[in-house]
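lol forgot to send this yesterday, sorry. struct tokens for the thing we talked abt
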């Protein structure tokens, strides 16, 4: 994949600075031939996946089809057995193995999970600043400045001193998004972050993602069953089946009735549930 480095990584997609419009240009993710097996089953069976900067990609598929595994591989949390991965022009993996350049690419990726992962005994500010300060050695003032900015971006600035146990589920997920924003990611991976929330609260959390895309130029890959959000806000819908991407299309193409019968029945099932 080295030959792709100069073509995939534009300076703008790569840079934490610049305007939202500048940051949302170019190919941000290029994955080729990702493979990962669990218990002799090919969970990722040669996945090719790409994302443009500043786009929202919704990933759907049946339980166990490999959606979370793909996100975890992109975030560097699960090791693939094979495949090449380039993020914002940095070749992160070659033949499944991390390259010397991996940290530059992985640093641009943030991830938010389904379950609330905030420290219950800390307030919101400490939840956001703990890892940057202790792990990365960021100064208190820089970490607090970033936390204030990140909380503003998710509409939670007024809760900066709140204890995380006092927050509602939707508020906790917005703080979890803010925590991921602390490292100024260009790509935010969200794994069923609203599935424990009531629909109106889920819609509020998802609207934060659309705003981050529009105002900050952040690309989002989101695993969700929320077809209302997918049809309104997604630039692309990716359907996973048997360890591969079976359909990669616009929401219009999917909801107008795509040719893949498995996807049609999946969309009907989740829309009716
Ligand atoms: N760490 C692991 N150890 C063993 N098996 C795993 C591991 N992670 C994932 N798997 C298996 O890989 C398959 C795909 O899992 P994955 O979590 O990616 O699916 P998913 O599409 O996210 O499903 P869901 O919609 O239920 O979240 C499943 O059969 C799962 O049991
Ligand atoms: Mg999953």
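and heres what i got for the seq, position by position
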């Amino acid at each position: 994949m080295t030959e792709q480095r100069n073509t995939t990584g534009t300076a703008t997609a790569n840079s934490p600075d610049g305007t939202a419009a500048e940051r949302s240009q170019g190919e941000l993710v290029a994955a080729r031939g990702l493979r990962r097996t669990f218990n002799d089953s090919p969970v990722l069976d040669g996945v090719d996946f790409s994302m443009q900067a500043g786009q929202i990609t919704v990933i759907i598929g049946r339980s166990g089809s490999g959606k979370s595994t793909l996100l975890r591989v992109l975030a560097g949390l699960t090791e693939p057995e094979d495949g090449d991965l380039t993020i914002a022009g940095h070749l992160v993996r070659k033949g499944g193995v991390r390259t010397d350049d991996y940290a530059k690419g992985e640093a641009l990726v943030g991830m938010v999970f389904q379950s609330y992962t905030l420290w219950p005994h800390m307030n919101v500010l400490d939840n956001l600043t703990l890892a940057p300060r202790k792990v990365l050695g960021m100064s208190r003032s820089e970490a607090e400045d970033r936390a204030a900015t990140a909380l503003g971006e998710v509409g939670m600035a007024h809760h900066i001193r709140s204890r995380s146990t006092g927050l509602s589920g939707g508020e906790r997920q917005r703080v979890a998004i803010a925590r991921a924003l602390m490292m100024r990611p260009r790509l935010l991976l969200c794994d069923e972050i609203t599935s424990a929330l009531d629909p109106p609260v889920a819609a509020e959390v998802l609207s934060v993602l659309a705003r981050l895309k529009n105002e900050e130029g952040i690309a989002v890959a989101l695993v969700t069953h929320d077809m209302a959000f997918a049809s309104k806000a997604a630039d692309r819908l990716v359907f996973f089946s048997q360890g591969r991407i079976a359909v990669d299309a616009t929401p219009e193409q999917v909801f107008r009735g795509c040719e893949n019968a498995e996807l049609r029945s999946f969309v009907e099932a989740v829309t009716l549930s």
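The CA atoms of residues 164 and 218 lie 25 Å apart. anyway ping me if u want another try
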